[in-house]
Amino acid sequence: CAEVARTIGCYAAVLDSIVFTMVIPDSYDMVMALGGNAVLSGAMIGAHKFGMAWGALVYYTLLRMFPEIWRTWAKSTLLLCATFNLIGTGTYAAVAALSVNGE
Known about the structure:
By secondary structure, the protein is an all-alpha fold. The chain has one domain. About 90% of the residues lie in helices and about 0% in strands. The chain is built from 4 helices and no strands. The protein has helices spanning about 1-35, 40-65, 70, 75-100. Helix 1 (about 1-35) packs antiparallel against helix 2. The longest helix is centred in the first third of the chain and has 32 residues, at about 1-35. The protein is elongated, with a radius of gyration of 17 Å. The protein starts with a helix and ends with a helix.
């Protein structure tokens, strides 16, 4: 069981790194197209990572308060996380589309 947990943890860390590095190449051009500057580009990158950290902290706190939550509410938790991921991705895509269209 420890081997499975370690494998899933490594997989999650790789996915987090991949998703984080996807924001970096586009942020400067996108922010500049929207009238921002390099500082705002860095803030956008930081906001992305802050959102990931905030979500992890919330779930960590829930796990500490309710240790069985991952067994009893696993499906609901995954659906909630997927919903927030879709909202974040949709927002990022909408802003990217606005920056391309110059609006």
